[in-house]
Amino acid sequence: MKFSMVTPSFNQGRFIRMTLESVAGQGGADIEHVVMDGGSTDETTSVLAEFGPRVRWVSEPDRGQTDAINKGIRATDGDVIGWINSDDVYYPGAIAAVAGFLAAHPDVDVVYGMADHIDADGNFIEAYPTEPWRFERLKETCFICQPALFFRRRVVERVGLLDEALHYCMDYEYWIRMGLAGVRFAYLPRKLAGSRMYGENKTLGARMKVHREINDMMKRAFGKVPERWLCNYAHVVVDERVDRSAEPARFARAVAMESLRAAITWNRIPSPRMCTQVARWVIGA
């Protein structure tokens, strides 16, 4: 069983060595590692060159992270695909564990495991809130940590590549698309990866854009946005202008009103359940 590991990269020189080492230290399978770098101007290419034939890489302008991932998938031929961003890491034994699981379960298309959030120095922050597979639950929250998921190449043949119009939730959309296509998921209760969280991190640095993109994606996928995501968006919007700890009542009222606005924007009309919940927030405030 051959694993194709794909890493999109751009100016992550301070982290990419740890990513490369975490892949190079894996065993238990035939592994190819391809890095698609978007033309970094920092030390990234120097670090890549140090790894010699263990890493195949290209450094040239691209159309962003999703384009780089798709280019990497097309440039590989492994039976199993995983992508790990240039600031994340695999834990020792991760690929061996996944290879063993997939060999024992040939009917499983996708396997994902547990993961941690780690800081810029690689220190543990918290466990990523992973959960056993349930598609209806996935609509409400993304309980899959991207570097801790691996999929067979036959999945790409079935559902295609990632949506290059997306810049933040391309992974979440891909899981949703897989679920809609009836792809078979399995949960491996073992920690496989560390996902780095720090101030310059793309997701943390653009929270409102992230949530807006998720809502737009959900609207396209299901015709309406789950209320949990509408409320999440409202929390992010209000958090930008109201100090929750200093003004909890004002914060609750503002979130209530913003949730209604979000429901009107994406779903045209708030559901009775949302109206009831909003009323509780206002009364409770």
Briefly characterize the structure.
The chain is α/β, with parallel strands linked by helices and 285 residues long. The chain has helices spanning 13-24, 44-50, 65-74, 94-104, 135-140, 153-159, 170-180, 202-205, 207-222, 227-239, 248-267, 272-284, and strands at residues 2-9, 30-37, 56-59, 80-83, 89-90, 110-118, 124-127, 149-152, 185-196. The chain folds into 2 domains: 2-202, Spore Coat Polysaccharide Biosynthesis Protein SpsA, Chain A, CATH 3.90.550; 206-284, no CATH class.
Describe the structure.
By secondary structure, this protein is an alpha/beta fold. The chain folds into two domains: 2-202, Spore Coat Polysaccharide Biosynthesis Protein SpsA, Chain A; 206-284, no CATH class. Helices cover 46% and strands 19% of the residues. The chain has twelve helices and nine strands. Strands 1, 2, 3, 4, 5, 6, 7, 8 and 9 form a nine-stranded mixed beta sheet that branches. Strand 2 (30-37), helix 2 (44-50) and strand 3 (56-59) form a beta-alpha-beta unit. The mean pLDDT is 94.
How would you sum up the global shape?
globular
**Total strand count, please?**
9
State the major sheet: 9 strands, mixed
Measured between the Cα atoms of the first and last residue, the distance is 57 Å
Structural class estimated from helices and strands: alpha/beta
| CATH level 1 class label of the largest domain | Alpha Beta
Spatial extent as radius of gyration? 20 Å
Helix count from the secondary structure assignment: 12
